[in-house]
Protein: Regulator of g-protein signaling loco
Amino acid sequence: MKVSIMAQVFSHQVGSLMIRISQWDTNSEYGLVPEATETGEFILFIDSLFDSLNGNNKQAPSTTPLKGGITRNSPHEMFWRDAIKVMETMKFYDAKRKRFVNVPSCTNLIKTVKGFIYLRSKLLKQVTYFLPRAVNQDCLENFFGSVRTYGRRNVNPNCSQFVTSFKALLVNNFMSYHSPGANCEEDYATGALDNLKCFLTGEELQGIHLLEDTSPEVPIPQNIKKTRVAESTIAYFAGYIVKKSLKTVHCQDCNSVLLHSDGNIRD
Structure:
């Protein structure tokens, strides 16, 4: 399951060196049979295929032209179509069944390559290039992993547990900081939770507004009159969160934002 080990084996260095050694006319114990050339060519093919799906920079290195951003003029699509033809002919011998069979890894890799060809035809109509390495589910996987491990090991949460964990993670991540010595840039905000306050109360605050031409219409709940018990509860929890935050936040600008008051004690 370790991709790093696989990448070390199916690499350009291993494939090119295997081809070179197999062509040596030597009888030493370190020599390779001539048939090793085909294995080396297969390793170079896999290395190029992974390079084409792992580009993280717009400009590809001169030695690996496939390890770059996908553009209208990049050689990715032509290589992918040839790679599909190669992978469709790949068979693996099953010793128990005593016949050649298809394996899920190769079948799903063909589907992945076909998916990238489809994405290229759609995305390049809107953008000039895109990075194939960014097309992954790491963010979604990390998010669901955080939900499943929040509080306890809950690998199969129901809808209510999922929503509760999601809300708690939002608050915890919001109140956390990257490192005690991290630099904090001014974001020109008057309050850290003003956008949430604007959404919940419908109050129009200075500097916070929706773009009418790009943002979808979101129903804003009406400002509901709170009882004194509700106001006291909000004030208690707000004070508790700020008290905990001041112990960990070491930025004076952040502290001043957390302690900022607009003059309305009830808010």
Remarks:
- The chain has three domains: 3-135, 137-176, 180-267.
- Residues 94 and 100 are 6 Å apart (CA to CA).
